[in-house]
């Protein structure tokens, strides 16, 4: 297969996390626990929303989509990381690496778009409460979700195809725990200018536009509350937007921390820690943020459990 003096790389080595060997087992247990919590928490949310008809509102259908996306997002990286921590062989095939990168981008972007859809939903709910049901019709919700899927599929595909053009030479060690796009670009021995330009442009669009849209809808919400300030209105706004705002801050907070804060010389460790934050911690916390303070979710849980054990509850 290799022609001329160019070697073809069939597999990469994932260097994993910068953890001292004596602590490997401790961290393994910790990450396993976090991953299982993520899977379980998000599955419970999806099942609960599916089963309880009180939760068949746009907000909860979006939340269910967000949980699905969280579940997939952490499943793209975590199982492989856990497997590599246990086995001595930390290789990943070239195709596996590109596949991981594709799904990482797909579900990461999907989350960003779903957060916009949810912000729009809150904006309509607070600023046009009387027209909420007619504006947020089932067809609009389905269209918003479909549009998110189409845009992120296209975006992830674009980067994956651009990456597939590049050739890799001797160096095949990725100093990361998954096939991160920028880590792969650094390894490549081809010209990566086009890739960098596309990352810069689309990355800006895909992160900045959703962020601005979310800010705009919250600005509208705040100004509509300030127009008729009442304790009840403020409480209502906080109770319906609080969870969403926490998730948004968590999601964009880590991204802004990662890309905008000046990084010191030892940036690999910082990058890995931040990547850990958004691949593991954010997807794990989302279900808790939405369910702990939420009366609807607690009520739904009680109803679903009671329906199954009807005799105990009566
Ligand atoms: C995602 O949202 C759409 C539209 O609201 C809904 O029909 C669908 O059931 C949701 N999917 C999941 C997995 O919750």
TrEMBL record:
Superkingdom of source: Eukaryota
Record key words, sorted: Cell membrane, G-protein coupled receptor, Membrane, Olfaction, Receptor, Sensory transduction, Transducer, Transmembrane, Transmembrane helix
Annotated InterPro entries: GPCR_Rhodpsn, GPCR_Rhodpsn_7TM, Olfact_rcpt
GO cellular component assignments: membrane; plasma membrane
Membrane topology: Multi-pass membrane protein
Transmembrane segments: 26-48, 101-120, 132-158, 197-216, 237-260, 272-292
Entry's localization field: Cell membrane
Gene3D superfamilies cross-referenced by the UniProt entry: Rhodopsin 7-helix transmembrane proteins
Recorded family membership: Belongs to the G-protein coupled receptor 1 family.
PANTHER family registered for this protein in UniProt: OLFACTORY RECEPTOR
Protein name: Olfactory receptor
Lineage, highest ranks first: Eukaryota, Metazoa, Chordata, Craniata, Vertebrata
Encoding gene (name): Or1e1
